[in-house]
Amino acid sequence: MCRFPQVSYMLLCTLLSTTVFNSYSDEQAPEKPRVCIVGTGYVGLPTAGILSSFGNHVACVDVLSEKIAQINNGRLPIFEPGLEQLLQEPIKSGRLTFSTDVLSHMQRASIIVIAVGTPMSKNGAADLRAIDAVVEDLAKAITSYKIICIKSTVPVGTCAHVRDALIAKGINKDLFDIVSNPEFLREGTAVQDSLNPDRIIIGGNPRATTIIKSLYQPLIDKGSAYLITSLETSELIKYASNAMLATRITFINEMARLCDKVGANVLDVAAGMGMDKRIGTAFLVPGPGFGGSCFPKDTKALAYIMKNKKIGATLINAIYRSNVAHKKAILKQIDKLIGDFTDKKVALLGLAFKANTDDIRDSFAIDAIAYLLAHNAHVSAYDPQGMDNMRTLFPQVSYGPTLEAAVQGADLIVIITEWNEFKTLNVANLAQACRTKRLLDLRNIIDRATAEQNGFTYIGMGVCPVKKSAKMIH
Q: What is the DSSP string of 180-197?
């Protein structure tokens, strides 16, 4: 759980948010609408922070009373650099409040933003039960005109489904409009992404999209691109974007495995590819496979949608399967490195699916822990933010209070997450702490030569030379 982010980042967020707010002050702007945001997670909280920083009165609501109590007591339920500082001024001024009184704040608001979770169900489809629960509340709250803005990642047709469901419950269609406004926040940089978005996508009819666009006017005035489109197009843009990014990650991971076989260096391969302006370097960094709350579920959900529409999702399905295969290949590497797991200790450095977040959803660390425990290995772990969350899944793991404690007596160290703390590791000290010097670096953040000079058997991702020269492939 988050208390205070780093001071330097807090100062940056303060300067950025103050600049944006001052450029669009209440004196210059027309009367601002009241906004109700449903959901206090990785999407709802940054959205509440940015909209309230623009001078809007925002009520952030959640049915989980413990989360609201925690926030009102000055603690955030998630870790996100700069988020607490972003929320601080609007909370102090009274423009941003948190409550469990969902209906009351829905009734007072003219814009209701839905930012609830849409996790993956067993069949791969998006689980929309949280959306449907919000619809039940909306049906009781709509007595005057409201814009319902769906920011959650949802399948194509969800906005139309919400509209039809409300009409079926007797709500006059003239009393509300539906808008699709997908989020493109990256965990770990959500505040920065909120203040400087690549693009703002708004789908819906002209009356509603004009109003929602005005919410983001400070960002548009600063140069953020925006696109007004249909509901269905807006919904699909989010899924298509995540599928493309997942494709790039999957591709470079396959190239990394090939590099290991032929003696090439994947970092140079990625750099050479990136010199082509048509390709670029973004998301061409090898690692333990994509995880988190978006890419795994969104690729599966997109494939499910295409299957329902009788369209072959050959590429999308291949992306997901390749990611699963990549994780299995890494587990085989662990097996090969450690051999007999009996009385062996494996230290995992990093539990979150990426750095600068406490989110462990679909992290490779989950696969690794489950595999190691099933083979009777002793597992220790360290992560700057993710240990509390992982402890709820695997209480039997030994969670080190420090990195040094986690690696003490280890027979294998596996670097899973690219935390800055791990990039400056003293390899000599690491070698002294180990019982057996084996290092599997899934982020290529330790110099191989340095590791080997300190006696480590080092395996990276597509950067280790093969023993034999690569054979010509005809």
A: E----PPTTSHHHHHHS-
> Known catalytic residues?
294
Give the Å distances, CA to CA, from 362 to 32, 312, 327, 367, 460: 39, 26, 11, 8, 21
Distances (CA, A) of 193 to 50, 81, 159, 163, 188: 10, 12, 24, 29, 10
What one-character-per-residue DSSP string does 210-268 give?
HHHHHHTHHHHHTT-EEEEE-HHHHHHHHHHHHHHHHHHHHHHHHHHHHHHHHT--HHH
CA distances from 145 to 107, 176, 365 (A): 10, 5, 47
CA-CA distances (angstroms) from residue 397 to 330, 364, 436?
Answer: 20, 15, 20
- 62 forms beta bridges with none
Structure tokens at 268: 């140079």
SS3 458: strand
The tens digit of pLDDT for each residue in 177-219 reads 999 999 999 999 999 999 999 999 999 999 999 999 999 999 9
The tokens describing 282, both together, are 């973004």
Residues 416 and 446: beta-carbon distance below 8 Å: no
Nearest alpha-carbon partner for 448 in 267, 213, 187, 191: 267
Rounded to a whole number of angstroms, the distance between the first and last alpha carbons of the chain is 54
Quote the CA–CA distance of 217 and 289 in Å, as a whole number.
37
User: Which has the closest alpha carbon to 124: 356, 377, 358, 301?
Assistant: 301
Nearest to 413 by CA among 450, 446, 373, 388: 446
CA angle 171, 52, 222 (to 5 degrees): 110
- pTM for this one? 0.88
> Model confidence over 348-367: pLDDT tens digits?
999 999 999 999 999 999 99
